[in-house]
TrEMBL record:
It comes from Streptomyces niphimycinicus. This is Zinc-binding dehydrogenase. It comes from the Bacteria. Residues 14-323 form the Enoyl reductase (ER) domain. The lineage of its organism: Bacteria, Bacillati, Actinomycetota, Actinomycetes, Kitasatosporales.
């Protein structure tokens, strides 16, 4: 068995076309409590673009293998890693800014962060769901504590996190309002949104207020959207913000509605994957894959994600941009029934 592996390294911060180099590196060995996974698919997220551009240069020393989504197969288990056997199909969110990333043929991870892949998902679909799904779950369930019958506003419902969050909020029994361009309204209502508001055609605030406001805002945009959240919140409403913003925010209005704010940087974990897997099994959550590229074309995957707004004929495809790493022994993407 070969002891090396192919990885794509980030060697230069900046434009995608000069940022990556394919290299052979020694294959990692699983330590205590860890498993070695053959990565079949990963995906690109805005975090990858931000890292490549140098936004996190304090945390990422070059050269670096980046990427955080994995769907693949366990090939070796370390001492004490008895939860999995070689051959198990698994998916997970790899720790952010810790250890080797997932633009690689193999990846070592603590078994506590790993779950069995939902059988209904292809590897490409699972890789496209891990980071965004875990983020949506952590935001809506662990932070906001969304309850059945509550009203939730998900910003950017046609995006990666938003499309997962619309479905998760609906599965929790919430009434879901979401902001999306008009051309995406059919798409987001197809995901279960009760109300779609075009953020590009006017101010969403009066529209949400007219509908009676919301108990929870999931802010996937930041800036003004974060600052204005109290204007649409019911008393004792909750806001979960996932986008850090360097501009000072005026939070004065938050006192007026006794708001609770949660600032979230997603963390990996098996329990969240299991919860998402149950929703997948029940047919209440399906990942949306817009494109699948091979690992060798990672720069193109970045360019595609960066290419402006998502949606038909508008720069980038709607849905996640997944990356096939090993040749997959299945159709790269199948539609979830
Ligand atoms: N803190 C965390 O742990 C965490 C985790 C995951 C993601 N994030 C961050 O969350 C953000 C979203 O991630 P993503 O993967 O969902 O990105 P994405 O797939 O690019 O989706 C962003 C969505 O927001 C929409 N949008 C743009 N401007 C908007 C506005 N003013 N109001 C409402 N919607 C708007 C976009 O619509 P168009 O495409 O039509 O423009 C798109 O559908 C990124 O900044 C990412 O870095 C943070």
């Amino acid at each position: 068995m070969s002891t090396s592996m192919r990885v794509v390294e980030l060697v230069r911060f900046g434009a995608a076309d000069a940022a990556f180099v394919t290299r052979e590196l020694p294959r990692p060995t699983p330590g205590p409590g860890q498993v070695l996974v053959r990565v079949l698919a990963t995906s690109v997220n805005p975090l990858d673009l931000q890292t490549r551009r140098g936004d996190y240069r304090d945390q990422v020393a070059l050269p670096a293998v980046i990427g955080n989504d994995v769907s693949g197969v366990v090939v070796e288990t370390g001492p004490g890693a008895g939860d999995f056997q070689p051959g198990d199909e698994v998916w997970y969110l790899a720790p952010v800014f810790a250890g080797q990333g997932t633009y690689a043929e193999f990846h070592v991870v603590d078994q506590a962060l790993v779950d069995h892949k939902p059988a209904r998902l292809s590897h490409v679909e699972a890789a496209g769901l891990a980071l965004v799904g875990v983020t949506a779950w952590e935001a809506l369930v662990e932070r906001a504590g969304v309850r059945a019958g509550e009203r939730v506003l998900v910003h950017g419902g046609a995006g990666g996190v938003g499309s997962a969050a619309v479905q998760v909020a609906g599965a929790l029994g919430a009434e879901v309002l979401t902001t999306a361009r008009e051309r995406d309204h059919e798409f987001v209502t197809g995901l279960g949104a009760d109300v779609a508001i075009d953020f590009s055609a006017g101010d969403y605030v009066p529209q949400v207020r007219e509908l009676g406001g919301v108990d929870v805002v999931l802010d996937t945009v930041g800036g003004d959207t974060l600052a204005r959240s109290p204007e649409v919140l019911a008393d004792r409403g909750r806001v979960v913000s996932i986008v850090d913003t360097p501009e000072p925010q005026n939070m004065l209005a938050a006192w007026g509605v006794n708001a609770t704010y949660h600032f979230l940087f997603v963390s990996p974990g098996r329990a969240k994957l299991q919860a998402l897997g149950r929703l997948v099994d029940q047919g209440r959550l399906r990942p949306v894959i817009g494109a699948v590229l091979p690992l060798a074309d990672i720069a193109q995957a970045h360019t595609l994600l960066e290419g402006g707004s998502a949606g038909e004929g508008r720069g980038r495809p709607r849905g996640k941009i997944a990356v096939a790493v090993h040749p997959l022994d299945e159709p790269p993407h199948r539609t979830t029934p």
